[in-house]
Design goal:
By secondary structure, the protein is mainly alpha-helical. It is built from 3 helices and no strands. The chain has helices at about 1-30, 40-60, 65-209. The relative contact order is 0.03. Residues about 1-5 have low confidence and may be disordered.
Length: about 210
Protein backbone atom coordinates (compact mmCIF):
# COMPACT_ATOMS: atom_id res chain seq x y z
CA UNK A 1 0.00 0.00 0.00
CA UNK A 2 2.82 2.37 0.90
CA UNK A 3 4.63 1.62 -2.34
CA UNK A 4 1.45 2.32 -4.34
CA UNK A 5 1.04 5.63 -2.58
CA UNK A 6 4.60 6.61 -3.35
CA UNK A 7 4.09 5.81 -7.02
CA UNK A 8 0.96 7.95 -7.15
CA UNK A 9 2.72 10.78 -5.35
CA UNK A 10 5.72 10.70 -7.68
CA UNK A 11 4.23 12.93 -10.46
CA UNK A 12 3.10 15.42 -7.89
CA UNK A 13 6.60 15.53 -6.37
CA UNK A 14 8.14 16.02 -9.79
CA UNK A 15 5.74 18.87 -10.54
CA UNK A 16 6.48 20.60 -7.23
CA UNK A 17 10.23 20.16 -7.72
CA UNK A 18 9.99 21.59 -11.23
CA UNK A 19 7.98 24.58 -10.06
CA UNK A 20 10.34 25.20 -7.12
CA UNK A 21 13.33 25.12 -9.45
CA UNK A 22 11.62 27.41 -11.93
CA UNK A 23 10.95 29.91 -9.12
CA UNK A 24 14.62 30.23 -8.09
CA UNK A 25 15.59 32.88 -10.70
CA UNK A 26 12.47 34.85 -9.82
CA UNK A 27 13.36 34.73 -6.13
CA UNK A 28 16.84 36.06 -6.92
CA UNK A 29 15.42 38.97 -8.93
CA UNK A 30 12.84 39.68 -6.19
CA UNK A 31 15.60 39.76 -3.56
CA UNK A 32 17.72 42.08 -5.69
CA UNK A 33 14.79 44.45 -6.13
CA UNK A 34 13.66 44.34 -2.51
CA UNK A 35 10.45 42.50 -3.42
CA UNK A 36 11.14 39.29 -1.57
CA UNK A 37 7.98 38.13 0.20
CA UNK A 38 5.78 40.58 -1.76
CA UNK A 39 3.11 38.34 -3.21
CA UNK A 40 1.53 41.25 -5.08
CA UNK A 41 4.73 42.00 -7.00
CA UNK A 42 3.58 41.57 -10.64
CA UNK A 43 6.32 39.03 -11.68
CA UNK A 44 5.68 36.95 -8.55
CA UNK A 45 1.92 37.11 -9.08
CA UNK A 46 2.30 36.10 -12.72
CA UNK A 47 4.50 33.11 -11.79
CA UNK A 48 2.04 31.99 -9.11
CA UNK A 49 -0.70 32.13 -11.73
CA UNK A 50 1.50 29.93 -13.92
CA UNK A 51 1.99 27.50 -11.00
CA UNK A 52 -1.77 27.35 -10.44
CA UNK A 53 -2.38 26.57 -14.12
CA UNK A 54 0.31 23.83 -14.15
CA UNK A 55 -1.03 22.22 -10.97
CA UNK A 56 -4.63 22.37 -12.21
CA UNK A 57 -3.93 21.01 -15.68
CA UNK A 58 -1.54 18.26 -14.57
CA UNK A 59 -3.73 17.38 -11.59
CA UNK A 60 -6.63 16.87 -13.97
CA UNK A 61 -4.54 14.89 -16.49
CA UNK A 62 -2.91 12.72 -13.84
CA UNK A 63 -6.16 12.35 -11.92
CA UNK A 64 -4.33 13.67 -8.88
CA UNK A 65 -7.01 15.25 -6.75
CA UNK A 66 -4.46 16.61 -4.30
CA UNK A 67 -2.51 18.40 -7.06
CA UNK A 68 -5.75 19.55 -8.66
CA UNK A 69 -7.03 20.94 -5.36
CA UNK A 70 -3.71 22.68 -4.75
CA UNK A 71 -3.96 24.25 -8.19
CA UNK A 72 -7.50 25.44 -7.56
CA UNK A 73 -6.56 26.89 -4.17
CA UNK A 74 -3.60 28.61 -5.77
CA UNK A 75 -5.88 30.00 -8.52
CA UNK A 76 -8.24 31.38 -5.85
CA UNK A 77 -5.27 32.90 -4.06
CA UNK A 78 -3.98 34.44 -7.29
CA UNK A 79 -7.45 35.82 -8.02
CA UNK A 80 -7.59 37.39 -4.55
CA UNK A 81 -4.07 38.78 -4.92
CA UNK A 82 -4.90 40.22 -8.33
CA UNK A 83 -8.08 41.77 -6.95
CA UNK A 84 -6.12 43.18 -4.04
CA UNK A 85 -3.51 44.51 -6.48
CA UNK A 86 -6.26 46.11 -8.55
CA UNK A 87 -7.79 47.64 -5.43
CA UNK A 88 -4.35 48.85 -4.38
CA UNK A 89 -3.83 50.33 -7.85
CA UNK A 90 -7.19 52.08 -7.62
CA UNK A 91 -6.27 53.30 -4.15
CA UNK A 92 -2.90 54.53 -5.46
CA UNK A 93 -4.66 56.32 -8.29
CA UNK A 94 -7.15 57.83 -5.85
CA UNK A 95 -4.36 58.91 -3.53
CA UNK A 96 -2.42 60.35 -6.47
CA UNK A 97 -5.48 62.25 -7.66
CA UNK A 98 -6.11 63.46 -4.12
CA UNK A 99 -2.51 64.64 -3.81
CA UNK A 100 -2.74 66.37 -7.18
CA UNK A 101 -6.04 68.02 -6.22
CA UNK A 102 -4.56 69.05 -2.88
CA UNK A 103 -1.51 70.46 -4.63
CA UNK A 104 -3.71 72.36 -7.07
CA UNK A 105 -5.89 73.73 -4.25
CA UNK A 106 -2.82 74.70 -2.24
CA UNK A 107 -1.29 76.42 -5.26
CA UNK A 108 -4.59 78.19 -5.94
CA UNK A 109 -4.79 79.26 -2.29
CA UNK A 110 -1.19 80.48 -2.39
CA UNK A 111 -1.92 82.36 -5.61
CA UNK A 112 -5.03 83.96 -4.08
CA UNK A 113 -3.10 84.84 -0.94
CA UNK A 114 -0.28 86.36 -3.00
CA UNK A 115 -2.80 88.37 -5.03
CA UNK A 116 -4.56 89.50 -1.85
CA UNK A 117 -1.22 90.55 -0.32
CA UNK A 118 -0.34 92.37 -3.53
CA UNK A 119 -3.69 94.19 -3.54
CA UNK A 120 -3.29 95.02 0.15
CA UNK A 121 0.21 96.37 -0.45
CA UNK A 122 -1.03 98.44 -3.39
CA UNK A 123 -3.95 99.74 -1.32
CA UNK A 124 -1.62 100.61 1.57
CA UNK A 125 0.69 102.41 -0.83
CA UNK A 126 -2.28 104.29 -2.29
CA UNK A 127 -3.47 105.28 1.20
CA UNK A 128 0.02 106.52 2.08
CA UNK A 129 0.16 108.48 -1.17
CA UNK A 130 -3.26 109.99 -0.53
CA UNK A 131 -2.24 110.89 3.04
CA UNK A 132 0.92 112.54 1.77
CA UNK A 133 -1.11 114.39 -0.87
CA UNK A 134 -3.60 115.60 1.76
CA UNK A 135 -0.73 116.71 4.01
CA UNK A 136 0.85 118.51 1.08
CA UNK A 137 -2.46 120.21 0.30
CA UNK A 138 -2.87 121.18 3.95
CA UNK A 139 0.68 122.52 4.04
CA UNK A 140 0.05 124.51 0.86
CA UNK A 141 -3.22 125.85 2.25
CA UNK A 142 -1.53 126.75 5.53
CA UNK A 143 1.30 128.46 3.66
CA UNK A 144 -1.22 130.39 1.56
CA UNK A 145 -3.15 131.40 4.68
CA UNK A 146 0.06 132.52 6.37
CA UNK A 147 1.06 134.49 3.27
CA UNK A 148 -2.39 136.06 3.07
CA UNK A 149 -2.34 136.88 6.80
CA UNK A 150 1.10 138.37 6.38
CA UNK A 151 -0.13 140.48 3.48
CA UNK A 152 -3.18 141.62 5.48
CA UNK A 153 -0.96 142.47 8.46
CA UNK A 154 1.41 144.40 6.22
CA UNK A 155 -1.52 146.28 4.69
CA UNK A 156 -2.91 147.00 8.16
CA UNK A 157 0.48 148.21 9.31
CA UNK A 158 0.69 150.47 6.26
CA UNK A 159 -2.76 151.88 7.02
CA UNK A 160 -1.82 152.43 10.66
CA UNK A 161 1.46 153.98 9.62
CA UNK A 162 -0.35 156.31 7.23
CA UNK A 163 -2.88 157.18 9.91
CA UNK A 164 -0.12 157.80 12.44
CA UNK A 165 1.76 159.97 9.98
CA UNK A 166 -1.45 161.85 9.15
CA UNK A 167 -2.23 162.31 12.84
CA UNK A 168 1.33 163.47 13.50
CA UNK A 169 1.16 165.90 10.58
CA UNK A 170 -2.18 167.21 11.80
CA UNK A 171 -0.85 167.60 15.32
CA UNK A 172 2.21 169.41 14.06
CA UNK A 173 0.04 171.69 11.93
CA UNK A 174 -2.18 172.44 14.93
CA UNK A 175 0.81 173.09 17.12
CA UNK A 176 2.38 175.27 14.41
CA UNK A 177 -0.86 177.21 14.12
CA UNK A 178 -1.02 177.65 17.87
CA UNK A 179 2.57 178.86 17.98
CA UNK A 180 1.84 181.22 15.10
CA UNK A 181 -1.22 182.56 16.91
CA UNK A 182 0.80 182.94 20.10
CA UNK A 183 3.55 184.73 18.19
CA UNK A 184 1.03 187.06 16.64
CA UNK A 185 -0.41 187.79 20.06
CA UNK A 186 3.06 188.53 21.39
CA UNK A 187 3.79 190.76 18.43
CA UNK A 188 0.51 192.60 18.98
CA UNK A 189 1.28 193.01 22.65
CA UNK A 190 4.72 194.39 21.90
CA UNK A 191 3.24 196.81 19.37
CA UNK A 192 0.68 198.00 21.87
CA UNK A 193 3.40 198.42 24.48
CA UNK A 194 5.53 200.42 22.07
CA UNK A 195 2.57 202.62 21.20
CA UNK A 196 1.82 203.12 24.87
CA UNK A 197 5.41 204.00 25.59
CA UNK A 198 5.38 206.47 22.67
CA UNK A 199 2.22 208.08 23.89
CA UNK A 200 3.60 208.37 27.42
CA UNK A 201 6.81 209.84 26.03
CA UNK A 202 4.94 212.41 24.08
CA UNK A 203 2.98 213.36 27.18
CA UNK A 204 6.12 213.77 29.20
CA UNK A 205 7.71 215.89 26.46
CA UNK A 206 4.77 218.18 26.39
CA UNK A 207 4.83 218.62 30.11
CA UNK A 208 8.46 219.51 30.08
CA UNK A 209 8.08 221.98 27.22
Amino acid sequence: MSTLMNVRNLPRTVVKTYLSAARLPLNAVAKANGQQGNEQWPPALAFEGFEASVETVLGSLLRDDTLLEAGRLRQAKVAQLRKAAQLEAVADTTRKQAREEFTERRQAAQSKRAQAEKRAAAREQQIEHEAEQRKSNVDQTTAKKKAAAKQVKAAQEKVIDRRERAATTEALATEEQALKTQQEALDTAETVEVIDETIEGNKDARKTG
